[in-house]
Amino acid sequence: MLEATGLMVFYENMLALNNISIRCGVNQIIGVFGANSAGKSTLMYTLSGIMQDIQKKEAMAGGERITLMGEVRYMGEDISGLKPSQRARKGIVLCPERRRIFNESSVLENLKIGGYLASSSEARNTLEYVFKIFPPLARLKKRIGGFLSGGEQQMLAIGRALMAQPKILLLDEPLMGLSPLMQAELILATKGICEEMKLSVIITEQYARPVLPIVDYAYILENGSAVMEGSKQELMDNPDVRSAYFGIEESYE
Amino acid sequence: MDILIYGTINSVTLALYAIGFAMVYGVSRLPNFAHGALYVVSGFITWSFLNSLGLNYLLSIILALIATAIIGALIYQFVLIRVRGMEISEIIASYAIGLAILEGFRWGGFKGLTYTLPAFIEGSVEIAGVSVDYQRLLVVGIGAAVVGLLWLFTRYTRIGLAMRGMAQDERAALMLGIDSDLIAVVAMGFGSMLAGLAAVLLLPLGNIVVEAGYNILILAIAVCIVGGLGSWMGAVLAAFLIGFAQILTVVYLGAHYQMVVALLAIILTLILRPSGLFGQQKELEERV
Which of A181, B130, B242, B279 is at 20 to 30 A from B180, Cα to Cα? Predict the structure, then answer.
């Protein structure tokens, strides 16, 4: 469905993504794991086209020189040159790191803004669906976005992304700063959304343990390079991965 | 009593001057220093339609508003879009355009007392012992309606909601499929149209003169700074603050101190509360 080959991103001379190739099939959940500054967010920005927008604006303002290489194909079509809004229209919607909800708007208004691309019947149905899977949002409809707790904000961010009628949802560190209980709840909800709305999901996270059970295939990034990839089972069985990303030390007796 | 009535009229006038500027800045962080020029342009276009082409007054106004919106959108699409995000260049570019338009008019001979628009309805009415002409009442009525409609527009229409989203976080809006360039053009068109609306409402009270362009720009900026740049409701409130302050100054200190009020308000606001009454320091976002 989405296939990226040979993605390279340079900030000035710093290599942020080094020859990354990833693919995501229809109705799959793909995990991308890696520590801080491994290039997860850069990858998400590149897939959603935000990186091209940043590049354009930086070039215009004479700021950082960003170089992009590689190709992103979506349903067989090369979309590397498309603007983020055009990609969103095709169904590639990013739910960004740190959530970036609209702080001054109410929950309902956040969702309505998210429904910019949706027809009014789609918007109505999705709104109902979002309130069904995230009951706290229905209760806090009138609350201003900035006053929500982290977990509620994350629900709102995902709900808002769903309002844009995605076919492939990019979740950038959705679990950041949340309690383990909330993490488990969100992961379960993500799995449910993927099945019920027939979506593909690419999800990035620093810590693989909570996410790994729901992914079909995963990549591990380190300093901008993909150091390993494999199915859930392959990664779980790898001793290096176990110690680095699950916190399970092998015991040497 | 006359302080109350004239204060209200003056405040709504200021709000009309400022709301287009506040809207453009709020949505796309673009200080449109050509705002005053667009105000004058709209007045001259209306005058030309009315007198040179001999069109019906209402029709000339509608056509002039549309023309002003298109001019604003063109200015954005062909000039300002290239300097988006660089505040100083935005100010220089938009001010240069405004200067070119206004001085172009002066050069072209549009000056003097010959250029006036007729009032919509002649005559006046007495409210609580103060004589108010219908045109000023109309200004207050339409001004209030504009503020109300704008509020509804930004909360219940697709484009309006997209503007609100973009005003708060442009990148997040991009992720949701909102085309920021398109929305910015629309906002600029709307803002220009609001400048034009202010012009056709207020110019019948005086002459169409080139200098008005500069005065209105200063007043609009004063209102927006006091209200907090980017906050429309703040701008409306600030319009009332400055509007009443001006009338009080006129009554108790003398008419020639009137212009000082707006400038003093800018200075005081920048010293005491740089983000304005309702503005936010966007730089002080969550720090992690």
Answer: B279
Residue B287 included in any domain: no
Structure tokens at B252: 């108790």
Determine, yes or no, domain membership for B65: yes
Whole-number Å distance between alpha carbons of B114 and B111: 8
Residue of A84, A105, A163 with shortest CB distance to B168: A105
Residues of B near A (Cβ–Cβ under 8 Å) read 82-86, 155, 158, 161-162, 164-165, 168-169, 171-180, 182, 286, 288
CA distance B16 to chain A (A): 24
CA A209/CA A206 separation, integer angstroms: 9
- H/E element holding A91? none
Q: How far is CA B64 from CA B50, B57, B70, B199, B203, in A?
A: 10, 10, 10, 10, 13
Mean pLDDT value of segment B220-242: 91
How far are the Cα atoms of B26, B31, B94 from residue B89, in angstroms, in the given order? 18, 10, 8
Q: What range defines the domain where residue B70 resides? A: 2-280
Per CB-CB distance under 8 Å, the chain B contacts of A84 are 174-175, 177
Cβ contacts below 8 Å, chain A against chain B, sum to 82
In a domain, B285, yes or no: no
Tell me how close the Cα of A235 comes to any Cα of chain B, in angstroms. 31
Q: How many structural domains does chain B have?
A: 1
pLDDT at A250: 59
Instruction: Give me the CATH number covering residue B101.
Output: 1.10.3470
Summarize pLDDT for A14-30 with one digit per residue, the tens.
Answer: 999 999 999 999 999 99
Residue of chain B nearest A119, judged by CA positions: B158
Distance from C-alpha of B279 to C-alpha of B273, rounded to nearest angstrom: 9
Q: Are A118 and A126 in contact (CB under 8 A)?
A: yes
Predicted TM-score (pTM) of the model is 0.90
CB contact under 8 A, A60 and B169: no
ipTM: 0.92
Tell me if B85 is assigned to some domain.
yes
Distance CA B264, CA B266 (A): 5
